[in-house]
Amino acid sequence: MRRSTRLLPLIGLALGLGVLPAQAAPDPLEPVNRRIHALNRLLQAHVLGPVAEAYVEYTPQGVREGVANAFANLGEPITAISAVAAGDLPRAGNAALRFGINSTLGLAGVADAAASLGFPRRPMATADALCSWGVPSGPYLVLPLIGPSTLRDAGAMVATSAALSQVVGSEIFLGWRSGDLFTAYAAFHAELQRIDEQALDSYAVHRSAFLQRRAAACPADRVAGLEDDEEDAPPREVAAAAP
């Protein structure tokens, strides 16, 4: 789940994590959420999808990996701060070392030199720190372009974005964040498109997969033995799973 904190949360649909029972977040905004989900699918079909396909077709794989690594490296300070807030000092140290190593030996992060030295990527977002404090997820949300989220996770994302915009400037932050999300989305576009085409209810599949992904990462969102969510979950080989 190397890019789970960077990518559209929809990526959880395409990852190979085991399905875990997830506490069903309330969805009182389902009518609005479904409209935003439909808008996102429209944008993916007519804007993001074609651009992603062109990027994958005309950009060598090595270049794409280098760009993705560079964007991911810029997210290591966020992991370090989030891990400190969560009390996970080993992860914070790992992120700090990765940032230092990859920013130098890794040529500004283009190469993941830290991984070869025994420091694998272990991303963490501020939403994960809130989860470690036991903050409940709140209602399920679908965000424009970003996709599935919850009130807790969306609030953490907005707060982090505002803080980073103040620190590095809004233009730099938006450039990094947009590029980071796009390169990650491009890598999974084909699989996400296949899932959407095969799903009888795309909205339900995305919601179930997202909640399962968050349950895998956030014990506060997990309910052992809850079977209702598993009944609505997509097949293990399709879903599993998470900005």
Which helices and strands occur, and which strands form pairs?
Layout: H1 30-58, H2 61-74, H3 76-86, H4 89-104, H5 113-116, H6 126-132, E1 140-143, E2 147-150, H7 151-168, H8 170-198, H9 202-217, H10 228-232
Antiparallel strand pairs: 1-2
Helix pairs in contact: 1-8, 2-8, 3-4, 3-6, 6-7, 7-8
Descriptive tags:
10 helices, two-stranded antiparallel sheet, disordered N terminus, mainly alpha, 243 residues, disordered C terminus, globular
Description:
- With 243 residues, this protein is mostly helical.
- The chain has one domain (9-232).
- 61% of the residues lie in helices and 3% in strands.
- It has ten helices and two strands, in the order ααααααββαααα.
- The protein has helices spanning 30-58, 61-74, 76-86, 89-104, 113-116, 126-132, 151-168, 170-198, 202-217, 228-232, and strands at residues 140-143, 147-150.
- A hairpin with a 3-residue loop joins strand 1 and strand 2.
- The chain is globular, with a radius of gyration of 17 Å.
- The two termini are 12 Å apart.
